[in-house]
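Entry:
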Amino acid sequence: MSHALQDWHANPGGLPTMRWAREVHEDRFFAETAEDDFVGVQTYTRLDVNAPRIVGHLSAAVLRSRRLTQALVLPHLRRQAVAAVPTGEAPADGVRRTLMGYRWAPEAVGETIQRVANLFPGKEIVITEHGVATNQDTERIDYIREGLRAVHRLIGDGLPITGYVHWSMLDNWEWWDGYGPTYGLVAVDRTNQTRTIKPSARWYGDVARANRMPT
């Protein structure tokens, strides 16, 4: 099983909600894969869960109640998710985002790998997905480069990372967003299925053939 993990961050007020959300969406699956031959990791972004300090105590109390969690916390998280969807306008928060509305954070994969390595000392780790939805191919190269640098540093630290798989080869169908967000190293014209190799594909191929970190 490949784990879809985020690089979670929170201030003291948001810590209870962050821990709850991370447990619901990520941690409960680790027990099911503890005996697997390797851990698959896929990461695209960083998530921030921040709130005034006093809210931390209230959140901790609310999250102990399933009914209150469903009534108060889940709608709030859904509103945050909807607000992150790009509208074609500049983001109000000034944060650089991808076509998926994700925070631009190619280095986040390094943080999730480190967390998995701490949870499963010595177990083989494979990055099964890492990429970016963008219609600017130079951004794709920048994103892959920064992600690979983060991975390379961890390999240098001795972590048993044995593979990196870019997402994706072709511009693909996203479940909620259709063909809008383009992830591929190869473009696809949906009117006639013509494939066009992007410069990022050739750049990535050069890196793979050289088997060394790009400058």
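Helices lie at 15-33, 53-62, 66-83, 108-119, 137-156, 199-210.
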